Amino acid sequence: MAVPLGAFIAVSAVLFFIGTAGVLVRRNAVVILMSVELMLNATNLALVAFSRRYSSIDERGSVFVVFIFVVAAAEVAVGLAIVLSAYRNKPTVDVDEIRQLKG
Amino acid sequence: MLDLIEPALFAVLTIAIVAAGAGVVLANRITTSALLMAFTFLNIAGMFVLLGAETVAMFQVLIYVGAITVLILYGVMFTPQSPRPYGLFFQTQKYWAALLVVPIAIIVALIAFSFRDSATVGAKGGDLLPLATSVFRDFAFPFEVASVLLLAAMVGAIVLVKRDED
């Protein structure tokens, strides 16, 4: 007995919500990056599940997942670099204390 | 008996993913968050194996559990983590934000949880051959663009963190 597709989609939605909540309520910039990674993983899960469901056509969903891997790696590298250079300007990683743009 | 192995594995992986994901958001110590994030990634790789996508699972372990977790841990190491009683933070515009987020969340939840598909998904043979065929035949140009993007991200990261010589 295999698991229905809807179950995978539900798990993916729950993980996406958890990641969104993390982005919205955490104050540490590094944890916000981690939450973004959780959201990307949730979408990957949904894409692979759909791709396996319709794999009689082809494996398009998994190709998108591979490209999301690339973009996630680029995103986390540049994100951490921005966090580090922001820390050099103002010694904090709390997003509620980085408010130089506030008028 | 053998029929129940896949649902049982799915249940275990689901509990681990949701618990570890919630731990990432709720844990106050940032190292705990990072390691729980790695654990979540590992369980997602298990989900991919359950779906029969072994190649994607292997990429997941290599890139997420290996590279991205190490990168995040380096970020934790290079930035001082000021101890706080609690790490959560609600912005002053939280009511407006909630007004925006809650309807979208309800719509997404309705769609995601009302999704019914009588067909089941599971291992139907490996995914390496179709994946490789797709990437190198239909998506050859996006593949090259992705490599340029990685190069640009690498150069950008180096430029951003490089200290000025003075």
Give structural notes:
The complex is a heterodimer of chains A (103) and B (166). With 103 residues, chain A is an all-alpha fold. Chain A is 74% helix and 2% strand. Chain A is elongated. The termini of chain A are far apart. The model of chain A has no long low-confidence stretch (mean pLDDT 85). Helix content of chain B is 73%, strand content 1%. The model of chain B has no long low-confidence stretch (mean pLDDT 84). Chain B is globular, with a radius of gyration of 21 Å. In chain B, helix 1 packs antiparallel against helix 2 and helix 2 runs antiparallel to helix 3. Chains A and B meet through strand 1, helix 1, helix 2 and helix 3 of A and helix 1, helix 2, helix 3, helix 4 and strand 1 of B.
User: What does the main sheet of chain B amount to?
Assistant: none
- Distance between the terminal alpha carbons of chain A, to the nearest Å? 59 Å
What is the CATH topology assignment of the largest domain in chain B?
Answer: Four Helix Bundle (Hemerythrin (Met), subunit A)
Number of helices of chain B: 6
Succession of helices and strands of chain A: EHHH
Determine and state the CATH class of the largest domain in chain B.
Answer: Mainly Alpha
Portion of residues in beta strands of chain B equals under 5%
**In total, how many beta strands of chain B?**
1
- Count of all domains of chain B: 2
Major interchain interface with per-chain residue totals: A-B, 74 and 85 residues
Computed CA radius of gyration of chain A, to the nearest angstrom: 17 Å
